[in-house]
Design a protein that fits this description.
The chain is mainly beta and 96 residues long. Helix content is 4%, strand content 43%.
Length: 96
């Protein structure tokens, strides 16, 4: 899994928990296990304000872009986040 983060000012906090190809976003679980290699799941098929853009699977990696809430005191790590590549199962730490 590759999680791309897109900062947005003033949004509610974000909590992520990963379990293989399942991602819980603020307590709501999304199962992406059925997305085959090369497929695209359109953003419009997912009812989640934090998911930005289509979800794809490429070279075995599920690729998803999420909105990262930021505030006026956010660090450079949050304002210019790096991709999260192959996170372990469990809680995913995000830049603040």
């Amino acid at each position: 899994m590759i999680i791309k983060l897109s900062p947005k000012f003033g949004a509610e906090p974000l909590t992520l928990i990963k379990r293989n190809d399942t991602l819980s976003i603020n307590g709501e679980t999304f199962d992406f296990t059925t997305i085959p290699e090369g497929a695209v799941l359109p953003e419009s098929a997912i009812n989640c304000e934090y998911i930005i853009g289509d979800i794809t699977r490429s070279n075995g990696h599920l690729i998803i872009c999420l909105m990262l809430p930021c505030g006026p005191d956010s660090t450079d790590a949050a304002n210019f986040p790096e991709d999260i590549v192959n996170p372990r199962n469990g809680h995913i730490g995000l830049p603040e």
